[in-house]
Design goal:
By secondary structure, this protein is an alpha/beta fold. It has helices at residues 10-21, 52-59, 74-81, 117-132, 158-175, 196-207, 222-233, 251-256, 263-280, and strands at residues 26-30, 65-69, 93-96, 101-104, 109-111, 140-143, 148-151, 179-183, 186-190, 211-216, 238-244, 259-262. The strands form 2 sheets. An 8-stranded mixed β-sheet has the order 5-4-3-2-1-10-11-12, sandwiched between helices. A 4-stranded antiparallel β-sheet has the order 6-7-9-8, covered by helices on one side. 49% of the residues are buried.
């Protein structure tokens, strides 16, 4: 039997107790890249940890809802995660583009509003823009449908390239009515007004959750952490999980987490242990 780790904070322990004591009201919301899927150099090669689907399938029938909340397009996350048509995950929801898109396993379809015109404008301008500022070497552009991202992981000095691009890309984004979302060696230009915190609050309200678990790994997950903190202040217990380890965890996230686990393998272990603990009760 997998052992269930003990949260380091009292708020986290209260959240875990609430989930275990009333699983039918618990909502489990999980980031994808870095949380369910290991970070890789090419985002198209990302795949969910091999034990993800068994862990989620075992847990989902005993809780109120399970959702994946990601910056990726919803359909891409479904494909890379292998979430479609999985027994036990008939009611899974994938909230893509920070909640702007939604895929429901019940229908197998994605719903979304019209795209922001600034994304198309930035997409067209970005290659020439990077070349003009001398930042083309080693950087590459990821097309994300409702957003566009610039990666520096392949640059000679990835962190220096990341820092050098932050201000110019912020200026470019502002000119087209967009914002920049920083991540681990990636800067994403996307529309304002939606983040993981907004999406999480809406989903918790929709489901009528009495407790919530959120797991993430990067700066884009900080708004979701803040949303769980807000829910806790208003009486809904929650557990905040950082996917990382002593050398790779994003410091800002780890410092605010109730529990830090060792990357996607650690997240899967937690999900297995949580599912077993719920059944044992």
């Amino acid at each position: 039997m997998d052992s269930l780790p003990t949260p380091l904070t009292q708020a986290g322990r209260d959240g875990l107790d609430a989930i275990l004591g009333g699983p039918a009201g618990a909502v489990v919301v999980l980031d994808f890249d870095g949380t369910l899927a290991p970070i890789v150099a090419d985002p198209e090669q990302a795949r969910a940890h091999p034990d993800t689907l068994p862990a989620l399938s075992a847990l989902a029938p005993d809780v109120a809802a399970v959702a994946v909340l990601t910056g990726r397009p919803a359909g891409v996350a479904v494909r890379l995660g292998g979430f479609a048509g999985v027994p036990g995950l008939e009611h899974l929801v994938v909230l893509g583009h920070y909640g702007t898109e939604r895929w429901d396993a019940v229908t197998g379809t994605v719903s979304a509003p019209a795209p922001h015109p600034g994304v198309a404008a930035v997409r067209a301008e970005l290659p020439g823009f990077l070349e003009r500022i001398g930042a083309w070497q080693g950087t590459w552009i990821e097309e994300k449908g409702r957003a566009v991202a610039v990666h520096t992981r392949r640059a000679a000095d990835p962190q220096a390239a990341f820092e050098a691009l932050r201000e110019p890309l912020a200026d470019l984004a502002t000119r087209h009515g967009l914002i920049v979302e920083p991540g681990r060696l990636v800067l994403e230009l996307r529309p304002p007004g939606m983040d993981k915190g907004v999406a999480l609050e809406k989903y918790v309200q929709e489901t009528g959750a009495t407790s919530v678990l959120y797991a993430g790994d990067d700066l884009g997950d900080l708004p979701a952490f803040a949303a769980v903190d807000k829910l806790r202040r208003n009486g809904t217990p929650g557990l905040l999980v950082c996917s990382g380890n002593s050398t790779e965890a994003v410091t800002e996230l780890a410092e605010r987490a109730d529990l830090v686990v060792d990357g996607p393998a650690g997240v899967v272990h937690l999900l297995h242990a949580l599912g077993q603990a719920v059944v044992d009760r």
